[in-house]
């Protein structure tokens, strides 16, 4: 009788434990999502993130807040997320990321679709993927696409990019290149700084910079490039369409999937501070074939076929 009682007691306990495990395994992870913009790249990144978790059989309950580039909506969404009980916050874009990082300190945040990953390292509950490719990657592609170039010119605002320029100079030197950098502290400085590079450089590197490389400065930078036969490496494919020779570009869905890999680690218990912020793992490029023809630059058929986008007929 005692043996039968013990047997049924153990069996009942096993059923309870099994049921608990099934319930736990079946529980959806609550993930709050802040999307800065309705533009297509943000949607692609979100789909990449969700696809990665789905492929990994992670059940997720997404609470998506679309901010429509509105700071007011961002503030309201962040307050809602703080009360939501989310296990993780995914932010897409600078507006969403800045708002979340400023207010949320007790929920892990994985960010993507921000230009640089530097700022993600300042908060222990934040990690993510920045859009800027590493300096090593940018320099390597320069040598692939412009193998005869030896001297690289760049305009930069020291308040924003001084350390990055110093690092780039060291990296380029190890790869057999010389960097010639000109400071600009306002858009009005751009024309004179460009002329200072005119007879010194083989190529102009369009480093992302809120003073030196803007729609306003493009009115000086693009004509300078053509007039002096100095190819411009654009900071984005938009610049290539406008007349820059080439630019590196992104697979937004894979950027989202890369953020998804980070989220998986967080959901398994890793602190964001233990997951290094990263650059995109896939690299694509866009070419302006009209600019190349004007400057008598020849790309191999393989390089042309390998471009994700090619532009013809566009003039700066």
Structural write-up:
The model is unreliable at 1-25 (pLDDT under 50). Helix 8 links the parallel strand 8 and strand 9 (232-233). It is elongated and about 65 Å long. The chain has twelve helices and twelve strands. The chain is 46% helix and 19% strand.
The CATH superfamily title of the largest domain = Response regulator
- Count of extended strands: 12
Helix content: 40-55%
CA-CA gap between termini: 93 Å
**Count of separate structural domains:** 2
Q: Number of DSSP helices?
A: 12
- Poorly predicted tracts of residues: 1-25
With strands numbered from the N-terminus, the spatial order across the biggest sheet is 2-1-3-4-5
Structural class: alpha/beta
CATH topology of the largest domain: Rossmann fold
Q: Give the topology string: H per helix, E per strand.
A: HEHEHEHEEHEHEHEHEHEHEHHE
Give a brief outline of the structure.
This protein is an alpha/beta fold and 316 residues long. It has two domains: 24-131 and 252-274, Rossmann fold; 135-248 and 283-311, 3-Layer(aba) Sandwich (Rossmann fold), CATH 3.40.50.
State the main characteristics.
single chain, 316 residues, Rossmann fold, 2 domains, five-stranded parallel β-sheet, four-stranded parallel β-sheet
Map the helices and strands.
Layout: H1 2-26, E1 29-35, H2 40-55, E2 60-66, H3 71-82, E3 88-92, H4 94-103, E4 109-114, E5 126-130, H5 135-145, E6 151-156, H6 158-174, E7 178-183, H7 190-197, E8 203-205, H8 215-227, E9 232-233, H9 237-242, E10 246-249, H10 252-267, E11 284-288, H11 289-294, H12 301-306, E12 309-311
Parallel strand pairs: 1-2, 1-3, 3-4, 4-5, 6-7, 6-8, 8-9, 11-12
Antiparallel strand pairs: 10-11
Helix pairs in contact: 2-10, 3-4, 7-8
């Amino acid at each position: 009788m005692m043996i039968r009682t013990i047997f049924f007691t153990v069996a009942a306990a096993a059923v309870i434990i099994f049921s608990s495990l099934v319930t736990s395994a079946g529980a959806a992870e609550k993930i709050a999502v802040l999307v800065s913009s309705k533009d297509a790249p943000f949607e692609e990144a979100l789909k990449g993130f969700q696809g990665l978790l789905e492929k990994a059989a992670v059940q997720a309950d997404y609470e998506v807040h679309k901010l429509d580039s509105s700071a007011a909506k961002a503030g309201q969404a962040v307050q809602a997320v703080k009360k939501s009980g989310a296990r993780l916050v995914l932010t897409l874009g600078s507006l969403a990321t800045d708002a979340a990082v400023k207010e949320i300190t007790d929920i892990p945040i994985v960010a993507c679709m921000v230009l640089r990953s530097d700022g993600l390292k300042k908060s222990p509950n934040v990690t993510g993927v920045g859009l800027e490719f590493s300096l090593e990657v940018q320099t390597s592609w320069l040598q692939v696409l412009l193998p005869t170039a030896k001297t690289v010119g760049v305009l930069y605002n020291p308040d924003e990019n001084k350390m990055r320029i110093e690092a780039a100079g060291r990296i380029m030197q190890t790869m057999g290149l010389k960097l010639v950098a000109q400071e600009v502290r306002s858009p009005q400085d751009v024309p004179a700084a460009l002329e200072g590079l005119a007879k010194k450089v083989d190529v102009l590197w369009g480093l992302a910079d809120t003073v030196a490389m803007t729609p306003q400065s493009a009115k000086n930078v693009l004509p300078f490039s053509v007039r002096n036969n100095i190819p411009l490496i654009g900071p984005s494919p938009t610049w290539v369409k406008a007349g820059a020779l080439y630019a590196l570009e992104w697979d937004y869905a894979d950027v989202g999937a890369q953020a998804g890999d980070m989220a998986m680690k967080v959901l398994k218990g890793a602190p964001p501070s233990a997951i290094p912020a990263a650059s995109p793992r896939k690299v694509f490029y866009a070419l302006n074939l009209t600019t190349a023809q004007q400057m008598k630059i020849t790309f191999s058929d393989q390089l042309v076929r390998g471009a994700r986008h090619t532009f013809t007929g566009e003039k700066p």
